[in-house]
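B., you asked whether I could sanity-check this one before it goes into the benchmark set. Here's the sequence:
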Amino acid sequence: MEQSIQAQRDHPAIRFRTRDMRACRDYFRSVRDGTHNFDAARPQNFQGFAHHEWPVGRISLNLVNIECKGDFTVTKSAPIPYFQFNFLLEGQCEIRGRDGRVVANPGDALVVDPEQTATEYWHNRSTQYLLRVDRR
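And here's what the prediction gave me:
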């Protein structure tokens, strides 16, 4: 992941940054035990992705930004080994899971059930803080 190495030289909190759709998709599959997938409705409309991370022991604060000229999805396909709290800064997200659906807007905070699979439907952009707490 050459882009990840370069990003770390630019700013120590940057874990990964790319403007390449395939690299973004590969990154999603490679982190966090391969539980998440990224897909854009029109891959040619993908504009960029950046992931910053500040880990402290079993807690990790993450800033994630995705930009796309159109819709994209993030799917959690398996349980995750951490609790996650999402704080939306930009974008609107509809989350669909086995317990129904919810719409989140900037200023909203969400708690992600680590056992539940779900798909997030985003429109154009997503900027959010994610607070992850390892549950092992």
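One thing to flag: The first helix runs from residue 2 to 10. Otherwise nothing jumped out at me.
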